[in-house]
Amino acid sequence: MPSMRQSYTVTVPEEPPAAAFPFLKQEMRRKGSMSGSMLVSTFVGLLINQAKNSKSAQGLVGLKNLGNTCFMNSILQCLSNTHSLRDYCLHNSHRRDLNNNSRTNTALMEEFAKLLQTMWTSSSSEAVSPSEFKTQIQRYAPRFVGYNQQDAQEFLRFLLDGLHNEVNRVTVRPRGSVEDFDHLQDEEKGKKMWNKYLEREDSKIVDVFVGQLKSSLTCSHCGFCSTVFDPFWDLSLPIAKGYGEVSLMDCMRLFTKEDVLDGDEKPTCYRCKARRRCTKKFTIQKFPKILVLHLKRFSEARRTSKLSTYVNFPMKDLDLREFASENSINAVYNLYAVSNHSGTTMGGHYTAFCRNPNSGEWYTFNDSRVTPMSSSQVRSSDAYVLFYELASSSRM
Ligand SMILES: [Zn+2]
Question: What is any Pfam family matched here (predicted)?
């Protein structure tokens, strides 16, 4: 690490582990101050050496269970192995986004970044306690207070939403205006709607996780087709029926299957100016860098039952081009993390299987325990939330 031997004029960072990354140079230069520069560069050097020699240098650190918090630990490990999000935290880039705004509360993002920094740079291989982070997530989403069994996918949504709000690049949201894009071609309309979304919601979290779904409504009477574009943070896939096992593609096809809206559900046709029987179909207009697929194993009615169907999903080359609205050139994904739920609705346990972004090896994260695993063990009927990375955005 010769570049780190240079002396930078920096203030002593409060969280030294973050400074163990050379890409901080710029950040450090920006925040100029004369104090402690030599001290920091020596300290940084030490930290790097320590980190290199420990297991934790590779993010292989367990998280303590704080009383039924396995749902949280499972999701945190999946996010910790999401390399662009991890790097955002390790480079301290979130600070720039926080600092650009005079926000009253930025504690959730701060604690999340601090936790990831500890997981990736701590010199100890001891399990880390996420209690400070948990305090903050509870402030944001009080429903995660207490020690009840929670749903990992719901937790993921709350967490990403909370992080996004604290690093949203939009500080003043434009006043809502009713613009009519209906005269435009679908592709153009999709782009306009996406830009409109970014005018309000624009963050690193959106860059990474958010895609755009197109729903097309076709009138059975006159054939008029109207389209609606909506951002999505994940896709909740119904589990296809089948004997023994079903494939992830079966679930995707079920999710995008043409649906008939009739009876009370009849929408008003724009051309007929009357309520008509319509067909509705989803396609993906914009594929996100990270695609989160949630397998709907739990019944929506108060989680009273669970489907333990084995869903066969590909580890590599999940090709979703058939679900694209346009002839999209890039819709091939590779799996890098899975949040698993074992057991029943009454008593269950969450773990995570993650592929380490540095080594490409798979590990089981079971609260405080981290153990290597074979990639052939990743697929199981416990798989609940799947994390896929767009092939071209992968560094590996
Ligand atoms: Zn019509």
Answer: UCH
